[in-house]
Amino acid sequence: MGGVFADSDLDALQAAVDARSLDGMIRALVPASGNGTAIGGVSALAGTLSAQNPASVGAELVYVPVTPCRIFDTRVTGEILTSGSTRDFDVTGVSSYALQGGDAGDCNGVGAVGAFAAAAISLSVATPARRGFITAYPFGTTRPQAVTMVYNRGVRDTTLSIVALDQDASAADMSIYSASDTHVVGDIVGYFIKPRPIALECIETGQTVEVADPGVARNAIAPACATGFTQTATNCQSSSWQMPFVYMSNGICSAQNNGESAANLRASRTCCRVPGG
Fold first, then answer.
1. Are 258 and 276 in contact (CB under 8 A)?
2. What is residue 11's predicted lDDT score, i.e. its pLDDT?
3. Pairing mode of beta strands 41-42, 208-212
4. pLDDT digit string (tens) for 182-194?
5. ∠185-134-65 over CA atoms, to 5°?
6. How would you class 167 by CB atoms within 10 Å of its CB: exposed for 0-12, middle for 13-18, buried for 19 or more?
7. Confidence label for 177 from pLDDT (cuts 50, 70 and 90)
8. Nearest to 204, CA basis, from 187, 223, 221
9. Predicted TM-score of the model (pTM)
10. What digits encode the pLDDT tens for the residues 73-115?
11. 3-class secondary structure for the chain?
């Protein structure tokens, strides 16, 4: 934090010395936010991992890692984040990130996935005008007191942050607030999405055929499921309307032939597995 001490005036340094906690010292050394109130708490310093709990946007999310890809860069667009300002960015449902200074396509399919709950983004600041901080949070929500990254004047810093996204049909997904003038760069490295149903892979075994003479009850036991498959149904067939089933479960079909001629009793199983299992 040498750069912070060098940039601070004597009153700020004295306040930091008198502080009773690390948060208090940081509040004394880092400038106030745009609404005139001090920073409420710091979630991470520059160069470390900060995370907003993905559980706050939905339980049982699945993380999907992706090849790092740039989704915004204010140096390219020439629109620096000024002190106390907020910039909104698209993350999902994007065919090209070029308008935000990012990839000319959809970042290898990220933009085509559809809405997802949160994104893992490598956030960088470039050429900050003075010490400050940024906060990344869902678009359309109240900016939290937590800080995503603290930065120093003239120093390029990077942090990996898990940012919850707005999932409504809005024009943007996330917002970034900056306490001082700085450029911001965002590279997506993964995203969190709700699990999607996977269709089962199902097959039917061969049939076991038993011949029942008139007045005779027979049992037909279907072939077992192949290794890796689980039985989901027992299938029973008879060749006569006069041969009602009395039992059909666990691959076993039982029936009595009430007709006047021999009839066939057939049994098979439906067996399923999760694809790739």
1. no
2. 62
3. unpaired
4. 999 999 999 998 8
5. 50
6. middle
7. very high
8. 223
9. 0.58
10. 999 999 999 999 999 999 999 999 999 999 999 999 999 998 8
11. CHHHHHHCCHHHHHHHHHCCCHHHHHHHHCCCCCCCCCCCEECCCCCCEEECCHHHHCCCCEEEEEEEEEEEEHHHHCCCECCCEEEEECCCCCCCCHHHCCCCCCCCCHHHCCCCCEEEEEEEEECCCCCEEEEEEECCCCCCCEECEEECCCCCEEEEEEEECCCCCCCCCEEEEECCCEEEEEEEEEEEECCCCCCCEEEECCCEEEEECCCCEEEEECCCCCCCCEEEEEEEEECCCCCCEEEEECCEEEEECCCCCCEEEEEEEEEEECCCC
Interatomic CA distance for residues 84 and 21, integer angstroms: 26
How far apart (Å, rounded) are the C-alpha atoms in residues 196 and 112?
15
The pLDDT assigned to 37 comes to 31
pLDDT digits (tens, 9 = 90+) for 115-141: 899 999 999 999 899 999 999 999 999
Q: Where are the domains of the chain?
A: 40-193, 201-273
What CATH number was assigned to the domain covering residues 40-193?
2.60.120
